[in-house]
Amino acid sequence: MPSSIVHGSLTLFGAGLFTRSLGFIYRIYLSRSIGSQGMGILSMIGPVLGFAVTVAMAGLPVAIAKVVAEQAELNPRAVRTVLKVSLVTVGLLGTAMLAAVTILAPVLTGSVLPDARTRVPLMAMSPLLVIIPFSAVLRGYFQGLRQMAAPAVAQVLEQVVRTGAVVFLVALALPHGLVAAVVAAAAGSVIGEASGLGILVVEYLRQPRPEPEPVDGLPPPSARALLREMLVIAVPVTVTRLVASATEVADATLIPRRLRVAGFSQAAATGFLGNLTGMAIPLLFFPTIITLALAENLIPAVSQAAALGQVDRVRTRARKALQVAFLVSLPTSVVFLVFGHTLAALFYQRPEVGDLIVPLAFTGPFLYLEMTLTAILRGLGHATVPTLNGLAGAAVRLTVIYFLAALPQVGIRAVIWGVAADLALSFLLNYLALTRYLPLRFDLANWVVKPVAAAALMALALRLGARSFLAWGFGPWVATLVTLAGGSLVYLAMLLITGSITGEQALL
Question: Are 423 and 247 in contact (CB under 8 A)?
Answer without folding.
Answer: no
